Amino acid sequence: MRFLSPLLFILLFAMIPSLHGQQGYRPAPENLQNREWFMDAKYGLFIHWGVYSVLAGGGDQGIAEWIMNRKQIPVVQYEKLAGFFNPTGFDPAEWVSLVKKAGMKYITITSKHHDGFAMFDSEISSYDVVDATPYGKDIIGLLKEECDRQGIRLFFYHSQLDWHHPDYYPRGNTGRDYTGRPDSGDWNAYIDYMNTQLTELLTNYGEIGGIWFDGMWDKPEANWRLDETYSLIHRLQPGALIGSNHHRMPFPGEDFQMFERDLPGQNTMGFNEAGVSESLPLEMCETMNNSWGFNIVDRDYKSVRQLIHTMVRAAGFGANFLLNTGPMPNGKIQPENVDTLLAIGKWLETYGSSIYGTRKGPVEPAPWGATTQKEGVIFLHVLDFDGDTLDLPGFNVDIKSAVLFEDHSRVRFWQNKEGLKIRLPENRRAIPDLVITLET
Ligand code: FHN
Question: What's the pLDDT score for residue 30?
């Protein structure tokens, strides 16, 4: 076969932006350490907060942070919301203390969502919480100071998609004609703008956990200049973990893979068609109702049992669980979410060591439950199973003993070359997760 001339290869490669990423990326030692920390941490709080919260979801299920696009609000009108955003009840110490009581180890907060509004003090734009709102304080800065005080890592969700900036042009699949932006613009100038705001986030707030990108799906074929952006982030903070919710296999330069409202490898949502990275840390994110931003009409809350099951199944796939809340415009986290977070935190007080610091177990999650493991022990998480004997065909790790996690009482088991059988205690209360510790 004739080989491509180098120039032709370069031209072809340059035309396939989606294959870009940080070419030749080798994670720094601190990045590899932070990946281990991330996989040990297992559980974080996702926060979707912006001026859209003023409209409390806009009266429709699941509209919340998408209200500008769903209600086709022009930029000149939407900007008025900033004038009503005055979260005087925002108390970062209250939020971070709640996160710790909830058993969470990190926070991922929207520094900028698709509406383009910066929840931090940006020098390059006055469309930010300090310059454009009566509140006038740097939300991200206040939260980061408190996270540092209380030992919680802070990640920034940053939308590459921008419905406000005039240079986000040509438009993508959203934020199109209704915004009132001119039918012209300089795409590279927008990427420069985005990289400048990222530089602010990676320079002005100390060491951050990482960047959670979202929005590439709006213009999948565009040249997002990822090589530049990822190199910039890793140059400013080599330990910062980059993830991008593009629903494709991770690009070079990405340090973890996330899954939105699906477990790794599943696709109940219809857009999680990517495979699962065999080498990167994994994280799945979920809402407590059906909305990411605050939505006063969305009372379809998931139960504590459901959310614990999701966390355990995620851990069974070796993935973190990033559970979302959308704070109210007064700066408070809605009481229904506080109650749920505290209930899960209570469960973790007893069972946390079967989740934190573990990796996926030898048996993939199944309808009955999941397995996690750490040095010398495997945790069987029996979630939904009515039988009195759990049969695990093909289980091939030699087991020395089996005890109930809760009280170390012995559990009967049989093991042979076909697999493992476990006799489950009869008096199983309706606990969310019957954990059995197998000593290997
Ligand atoms: O459009 C966003 C949405 O508002 C939210 O931020 C979720 C969270 O993962 N991501 C996108 C939807 O896929």
Answer: 98
Instruction: Please report the sign of the dihedral spanned by the C-alpha atoms of residue 141, residue 336, residue 365, residue 40.
Output: positive
**285 Cβ inside 6 Å of ligand 1:** yes
Compute the distance from residue 214 Cα to the ligand 1 centre, in Å: 7
For a pocket test of ligand 1, which of 109, 292, 321 has the largest count of ligand atoms closer than 8 A to its C-beta? 292
Q: Per residue in 261-273, pLDDT tens?
A: 999 999 999 888 8
Mean pLDDT of the chain: 95
Within a domain: residue 400?
Answer: yes
Quick one: which atom of ligand 1 is closest to the CA of 65? Answer: 4
pLDDT score of 1: 43
From 357, 392, 414, the end of a domain falls on: 357
Domain of 201, CATH number, reads 3.20.20.80
Residue 147 domain boundaries:
28-268+277-357
Whether ligand 1 lies within 6 angstroms of the CB of 262 is answered as no
Q: Nearest C-alpha to atom 6 of ligand 1 is from which residue?
A: 292
Pick out the chain residues at pLDDT < 70: 1-19, 429
Domain containing 386 — which CATH number?
A: 2.60.40.1180
Nearest-CA residue for ligand 1 atom 5 is: 292
pLDDT digits (tens, 9 = 90+) for 314-348: 999 999 999 999 999 999 999 999 999 999 999 99
Q: What is the pLDDT of residues 13-57, one digit of tens each?
A: 444 544 579 999 999 999 999 999 999 999 999 999 999 999 998
β-strand partners of 313: none
Residue 4 lies in a domain: no
165 in the same domain as 45: yes
- Ligand 1 centroid vs 159 CA: distance in angstroms? 9
